Amino acid sequence: MGLKLLLKKWFNPRPPLPDSILDTRILHIGGYWRGPNDMVRHMMIGLRAAGAQVVEYNTDEHLESLDAGSRPYDRGTSGPVWIREECLQDQFDQFDPHVVVCNAGGLSFRPEAAKKIRQTRYLLGIALSDPDVFMPTTRFIASNFDLFLTNDKTLISKYRESGANAEPLPLGTNENYWRPVPPLEKYRTDVLIVGRAHPDRVEPVREILRHFNTRVYGEGWEDYGIKSDGTIYGEETLHALNSAKIVPLFLTNPDGSTMYVKIGVLDFISAGALLITNFLPDVEQYFIFGKEIVGFSTTEDLISKIAYYLSHPEEAEAIRKAGCSRARQEHTWTRVWPRILSQLRK
């Protein structure tokens, strides 16, 4: 055997990624625990819409491929969820992907399997629930990937200290799903709260309820004596967003500390909501406060801003339209994925 063949056999260098996303084959692995609203599913749909050749592997339909060790399977909340590579052998053999994406849920191949896969393919890992899952899960798996993207940029240095090639996850929306729809009378309200109750959100929501006609949807509110109309999904979420005059979204951790930009910011604005959220510098990567989104700094400021825009509907409508237009034109997964693949290519 010649030297070149020996070197190829020993080192098995990967071919470079195709220059065009249209020529790129991607195996997308992830679960959709929120059903049609699930961001992982919308990311996959956006990847396909961007032109990539995508095979979807829904882990909810293939639980036999997941190994949580001695722990119950909890989508990476308490520890890594290892993918049994032998369960995906058909996808590897028949589709021959250039890139394998492990999208959220604490998903990763074990280090030895990841090393083997990376001899011929590229591995991309994504965290959507940092910082909550960093300590139990993602810090143990990030170095298994060629590129690991996190929703919390404050953790980048810690990931890199662990040997991972980590970068912030650029955010997008699925504009074909998160879209304006006609309002429905049953959802009409001045203020709409959508989301799980966290201790730091209770008092602001109580103040909102005290001052304005408000509808609350989400889990855990009854624990604090706040009436909730239950959970809401799918098309009903879109109708609710378009039936409310203003929608608060809190960008804070459960302990009240400032958090990060959530994908929900882009989703809700793309759906046509007038959004009010915490003043956070990172938000202005996507929207301009006062022109495309409304910001607040304290509970008193929140109440004051809601009152102002309820009494100035023309200004509110201008901000709503501007934000919706920008989200749907600039901040879509169809636009974001080529940037992500460009990062991976580097």
Q: Could you name the key traits of this structure?
A:
Rossmann fold; 2 domains; 6-stranded parallel β-sheet; 5-stranded parallel β-sheet; globular
Describe the 3D structure.
The protein has 346 residues and is of the alpha/beta class. Helices cover 36% and strands 18% of the residues. It has helices spanning 3-11, 39-49, 89-95, 111-117, 134-141, 156-161, 199-211, 234-243, 263-270, 299-311, 313-330, 333-345, and strands at residues 25-30, 53-58, 66-67, 81-83, 99-103, 107-109, 122-127, 147-150, 166-168, 189-194, 214-217, 244-249, 275-278, 294-296. The strands form three sheets. The protein has a six-stranded parallel sheet with strand order 2-1-5-7-8-9, with helices on both faces. The two termini are 33 Å apart.
How does CATH name the architecture of the largest domain? 3-Layer(aba) Sandwich
Measure the end-to-end span. Answer: 33 Å
Q: Give start-end ranges of low-pLDDT stretches.
A: 5-9
Radius of gyration: 22 Å
Instruction: Return the string of H and E elements.
Output: HEHEEEHEEHEHEHEEHEHEHEEHHH
User: What is the CATH C-level name of the largest domain?
Assistant: Alpha Beta
CATH fold annotation of the largest domain: Rossmann fold
| Number of helical stretches of at least 4 residues | 12
DSSP strand count: 14
> How would you describe the shape?
globular
DSSP strand (E) fraction? 15-25%
Short summary of the structure?
This protein has 346 residues and is an alpha/beta fold.
